[in-house]
Amino acid sequence: MSSPAPKSPEMSDKSRKYDRQIRLWGEHGQTVLENAQICLINATALGTEILKGIVLPGIGGFTIVDHRPVTEEDVGCNFFLDLDSVGQPRAKRCMQLLQELNPDVNGDYVDEHVEQLIDGQPDFFRSFDVVVATSISERTIVRLSNVLWEQNIPLIVARSVGFYGVARLQLREHCVIETHPDNKQTDLRLEHPFEELKKHMAEAQVTNKVPWLVVLYKVLQEWVDAHDGRYPASYREKLELRELIRSKMDGEQENFEEAIKAVNSSFGGGKPSSVVQEILQDDRCVNVNTESNAFWIMARALKDFVDNEGNGLLPVPGVLPDMTADTNSYISLQTVYRNQAAHDAEIVFRRARQLLKELNKPNDLITDKDVRLFCREAANIAVVRGTKITDEFDKGYHRSSHIASVLETPNSLMGHYIVLRALDRFQADYGCLPGESEAESDTTGMKSIAAKMLSEWGIGTPLSDDLAYEICRYGGAEIHSISAYLGGCIAHELIKLMSYASFDNNATGNSTITNEADFQKTAQIVVASIQKILQNVSSMQRMVNQFGTAQDSPELKQQLHQIRSYTQQLINDTTNQLNDLVNCKERHLKIQRDRLVDEFSTALNAFQAVQRKTVDLEKNAVRQARQASGAAMTLNKPPGSHHSSMGSNYNNTSNSGGSSMFEDNFITGSRGQTQEQMQEEIDLQALEDQERTIRELEENIVSVNEIYKKLGALVYEQSHQVDSIEASVEQTSVFVSEGVQQLKQASHYQNKARKKKLILAVDQAECQNTQLIRASIHNEKARKQKTHVLFNMKFTLSTVTKCSGRLGMLGGLDRLPNLSLQTPAFIFHTKGGSIPHLSKEAMQHFSNEPACFLHLSISNTLHMQEAIKASRTSIAEFIAQSNCATLLFVRDPSESPIPGLPEKELLPIYTRNGRRNISLEQYMTLVETFRPDAYVPLYDGDTDANSSKKREQKSLDRTEKFVEQCLEWHRKSDALQSSCLIGPVVGGYNEKLREQSIEFLRRSDDTFAGYLIEGLHMHGPSVVRMDATAAVPIVGNVCKLLPEEKVRFCFGPYDPIVLLDMISAGVDVFDTSYAFLKAAQEHRALVFSFDVSTTGEQHTTELDTTDSQWAEDFGPLLPGCMCYTCQKHSRAYVHHLYNTREMLGPILLMMHNLHHYTEYFKAIRHHVANDSLPELKKHLAAQKSLPPYEPSKEDKLPIPAAQKADTVEPLEELVEKQNKKQRA
């Protein structure tokens, strides 16, 4: 037998090799994993799959204990074994093959039976962190469970049989430092500021460049001073604080907005939670000794800090969230928190070293790094204690009531647990697995074993015959796919156990509720348990009412005791199940949980009432029994009272009959004395039984009171949710009150207006009548002439600046009346109706607003026409974006055109299948099918700075002809009456042609809701590097000629500086094709700065994720960015995704670029409002730019065959050819 494998040394290329998983459980978790040792007992298919799942992530080492050789059955179900392995030691062969998966992991094997190790070397398992046992007998489970429980080593017992599998965890105590909670609160110490923080805040000045924490602190102190030193606690008080912050805003200030959002989540830090308090008050923390591990010693040091230097508060974690601020302000504030965190951690570290010295433990047991981590996570530490698997094999299993209640629940898996337990018992009794010889006869044996087990637990619910037959049908065989699935799940839990996560062990598995299905299953069990409790309470009430009557008997009290004990255990189990429902996040599940808590509380009240009544009756019975016993002792004289008469008779008798009389009296007295003593013993025994019953009842009452406390704590922990509901009610009340006041004010103004109208009417009645008649005639003519004017998209102009463009609001759609867009702005560029690389779920990480404006192009939606027509829906409904406005255009700004001259009556469309020519009839039919909210008529805008005057003139002529025909079609179409038109302005770089185009469009000005400036470029990636020197003046002149009350569109992947020139010229709306091209084609992240308070030379406009310099950079793409990508991932990870060509790469880049683009436009609107756009342009121009993107050979895509063709076939001919092929 070889010794267990040593620890695996640290790998030099760890970060490169385990890049993804380090992002899941961190460097500390990976280090712990690399130092862990696993012992596997029996290299079955399930066992090897478990090891595979932990060998690949880099476990330190593993040892396989197995005495069996490889058989043909093993080859059939174990992926790692082949026919050449038959006859070899199974442990050795599996160890060799598993090591091939990861040579950095050390492997070892022991070719002995596990029971030999238990008998001869019980300390063998002490060198392992976790022991996994598969397919072992019931006897071995019990022995191994006892040994590992004493050594405090976690044990996982697993088995796979056919389509069934089971895994049970034995965990005596598991101490967790990094719990990684879902909703981790940042400890900012606003309610308990330390001295350095007070000093820093006193010196800080509130501007739009400081972190929001400074704003919140300053305003909070003002609020506290006005409220007698009290901090805001209720929702209404926090609402007052938010309004106070808002009142101090001057325009759009992002740090103020962030401070307002952070009000609800910034209080309550520093104080230990109830969980942490329990740990600090635990006996293992208070009384550390030589057996204490590092966790409990650090917990004791933490307790000393909280009780002394901390004044009841935990150490400062020193972690700040990202904030919008200038670099110096944020770093200085972060330094204050980090210095205080280091100071607190130093105090805890010194105390921990002192404890190590007192306990004669080595100093290196706890390092400074360990203490810093412990202090940083002190608010979320946890200790989990489980149960011993051996307890499940006891006849009086304490969770039998739980098993009984779950068995009665429909579709529960408790029957599978019972039948798998019966399989262990069958193997122990018969020495083989059920079904190996004959399934039918073994099914009967399995049923009888399961029934016996249930009877031992006092459960009368029978086991399903189908379950017993199903388990026998497999004959103990393993199916590799099932073993692989179960092995992966167990390996995942093993990694959590060894790295940071916690467990809750019970008979049916992990009780953490992770989804709605698990919630509903547990809720059904709780409902069944509550009903059973109420039934038992009713039965107990009937029995208690029979006390003192003719039906009263010892059997009755015994039956009452059994029901009471069963109900008490059922209550304890139900309490634990309710605790399992705490982590649900959906609102409807929380409401359901609260209702269950109320119903359970009602059942507890009824149970408590019956118990108290029973106690009172039992006490009265004991009191009466004692009184009756005292009276009986007085009436019945003791045996010694007969001695005088006996002596008199003895003295006066001298004949031979005296001896007979003496014997008679002596025997009679002895019998009486014995009977009285026996009766007294019976009475005393009865009294002791009654008193014992009373004590049990009182203990039950106390335990139920503890359950009440737990329920109270459960409600308290969720009180912030109740506060949010209360807040909504209060906020609704406030809004209703404000609405009532506004209605009263409006009514007052309306009455005043009526009075003025009446006075004017008296003076000008005749003149007004004449004007009304004329107006009526004029309106009637206009109505007849312009019945086609149905555009419903409105643009409200709010501000026009001298040199920074204008501000406005786009909205007014009949279908989406509440949807609006502040301009200057962008609309989302789409491909096939979807934002490239982003699903609707991914969009939730990017924007909290579900509604938006979408840019749709004919080129990538043409193929959807037949499907949308067949579905009889609009394109918005078809692409599942009913809450978004759809704007349909001819060109895709991100795609380059295919060379070729357009035909006279057709327009070339560049689809994903190549170039297609489309007629006006086909175009308008497609528009009627799509029914967008807005669309542009067919036009010819394929011109750029290099186009000839002849081409520009032809563009204008063809556009005017197309637009006239489209307007005529639009007026007659019933399907398009809810769609508004956008007029295309063409003419290339010829100002006269542009003026002609605008003059033509303004003849039907009332028809158009806005205007599209086209013909500046040919679209595609080349626009990114376009010289806009000539284009900007053209745009400026066009905007001067267009009506101010109409919105102006200009699409293309313009450089951010060119965008500013376009906005200054008067353009309102752009698209996001620039962000898309940078992410999807160039693999670059937008990192340009728009904070003019910083120096432009310090920044770079883009970050090339393909550059190998980022391979070891674990910082975010852009420090301080709040997007999902920068919050969750690093530059190294995005670079890794590019190298491996993972589709997640462009997704993360797209999320970042769109978020950055959104923030950029917010800054633009802020500068437009302040008329300081030139300042922003100067700041951008000073930043460093990367060299122009040059696609590598790998990135160059093959040109579609349709693009290579010299001649382009008309769309009708292609369709006809396709139809002929289908008919053939």
UniProtKB/TrEMBL annotation:
HAMAP family listed in its UniProt record: QTRT2
Coiled-coil ranges from the UniProt annotation: 680-714
Designated name of the protein: Queuine tRNA-ribosyltransferase accessory subunit 2
Ranges of Low complexity composition bias in the record: 644-660
Family stated for the protein in its record: Belongs to the queuine tRNA-ribosyltransferase family. QTRT2 subfamily.
Domain called T-SNARE coiled-coil homology: residue spans: 684-746
Subunit structure as annotated in this protein's UniProt entry: Heterodimer of a catalytic subunit and an accessory subunit.
Organism: Anopheles epiroticus
Biological role stated in the UniProt entry: Non-catalytic subunit of the queuine tRNA-ribosyltransferase (TGT) that catalyzes the base-exchange of a guanine (G) residue with queuine (Q) at position 34 (anticodon wobble position) in tRNAs with GU(N) anticodons (tRNA-Asp, -Asn, -His and -Tyr), resulting in the hypermodified nucleoside queuosine (7-(((4,5-cis-dihydroxy-2-cyclopenten-1-yl)amino)methyl)-7-deazaguanosine).
Keyword Cell inner membrane assigned: no
